[in-house]
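User: Batch of two.

Assistant: Item 1 of 2:
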Amino acid sequence: MITEFFEYLKMDFALRALIVGVLLAVCASLLGVCLVPKRYSMIGDGLSHVGFGALAVASALGAAPLAVALPVVIIASFLLLRLRENGKIKGDSAVAMISAAALAIGVMIVSLSGSNTDLDGYMFGSLLSVTRADFITAIVLFPLVIIIFAVFYTQIFAVSHDENFARATGMKAGFYNTLLSVLVAVTIVIGMRLMGTLLISALIIFPSISAMRVCRSYFGTIITAVALSVVSFLCGMVMSFAVSTPIGASIVICNMICFFAMCLLGAIVKKKRI
C-alpha cells in the first residue's frame, strides 16, 4: 500500500493537496496555540462559515472564489473581534449568530442560483478541490503567516496569555489581536477547500489542546502542536487513500486519536511526578 500511495502522490492534485495540507497543518497549529488560551478558538469555526457564504456568492457570480472570500473573511474577523471585546452581544453568542447566518445565506444562494456547486466538497473537504490557484496562493501566504508569527512571537505570546498585563506594559494589544485575527482569516480561507467548512476549525483546536496535555512551556507546546498537526494530516491523508474516506473527516479522526493519546500520556507523566 505504501508503494501505491507514493504512486498516488505523483498525480498533480494529490501532490498539491499534500503540500497545501502540510503548510495548513503548521499554520493552524501555531494559531491554535494562541487562540485556545484566549478562548477564541471558536472564531475559527465562525470564520469558516463566513467563508462558505463568500464562496457561495463567488460561485453564483462566477467570480474567483479566493478573491471574494479572502477580503470578506478578513472583514468578518474584525467584526467578530470587535463584537467580542466591545459589543453588547459578547462571547460565543456573537460567533454562533454570525456563523449560522453566513452558513444559511450560503446554502440559500447556492439553492436559488441553480449552480452546480459541490456543497459536500465545500462542507467536508476534498482533495480535488485544491486548484492550481489555491496552491500558488498557499505557497505565497502560508509562509508569510509563519514568518509574521515568528517575528511577533513575544508580543503574540503576551497578548494570548495575559492581555491585561500586556496592555499595562504599554503593548498595543489591539494591534496584535487584529494581526492574529487576520492570520486566522487567511489560514481559514486557504485551508477551507481542503478541510471543509465544518471541519477546518478542528485543525486549529485539536493540536493545541493535545500538546497542552503534556507540555508545560509555551515553546514546547508550539513544537508539539505543530508535530502532532503535521503527523495527523499525513496519517489522515493515508487513511483517506486507503479506505476511501473524506479527507477532512480522516484528518480530524487522526487528530482526535492524538488527543486521547496525549491525554493518556499526560496522566502517566503527572502520576510519575507525584
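Item 2 of 2:
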Amino acid sequence: MSRIGKIERKTNETNVSVRIELDGAGIYTIKTGVGFLDHMLAQTARHGFIDAEIACSGDLEVDCHHVVEDTGICLGLAFAKALGAKEGIRRYGSATVPMDEALALCAIDFSGRPYLAFNCAFAPGKLGDMDAEMVEEFFRAFCVSAGANLHIKSLAGKNGHHMAEAVFKAFGQALEQAVTRDLRILGARSTKGIL
C-alpha cells in the first residue's frame, strides 16, 4: 500500500504544493524559487528514497524567509499525512554523512512530540540565494508540522555549502530509516500503543 502525503497551502505570502511518496526511488521535481533550497531538498529526496513533487511561489521580493519556512511546514504536514498512525514503522533513524571537509549528524524520532536541537555554526550571510539562518528555520517548521524530534549537529566543516549539503543528505538517510516498515513491529513502536 502506497504511503503518499499531499498538501496544498495558500496564504497571502506563499502558495505551496507538496506531494511525497515514502516508498519511492528518490525521483523529484522541486521548484520553490529559492535555488539553494531546491538543491538541498533534492539531496533529501534522493538520499531518502522519497519521491517528491514540491512547488512554491511566494514573496521573494521581501526575502526568502516565508518560502523556506512554509515549504518546511508543508513538507512536515505531508510526512504526517503519509505516515498516518505510524503503525509498523521503525520510528527512529540516524545518519552521519561526510561532504568533503564537512561532517553532519542527523537523528530523528517520529514521536509525535516536536522538538528541534540544531547545532550548526553557519557563518552569517547567504548560501547561494538563501540566508544561512534559514536552514534552522526550515527544520524547525518541519519538526512542528511532522510531530518529529530532530537533532542535527555539524561535527566539522568550513564551507557553508558543504555543511548544509551534508546536513540535508543525513536528514534524507535518517528519514529513510525512520519511515521504513518492519514486519516485526505490531502497531506503533511505543509502549503507549500510539505515537
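Strands lie at 4-10, 14-21, 28-31, 51-58, 92-99, 102-109, 115-119, 126-127, 130-131, 149-156.
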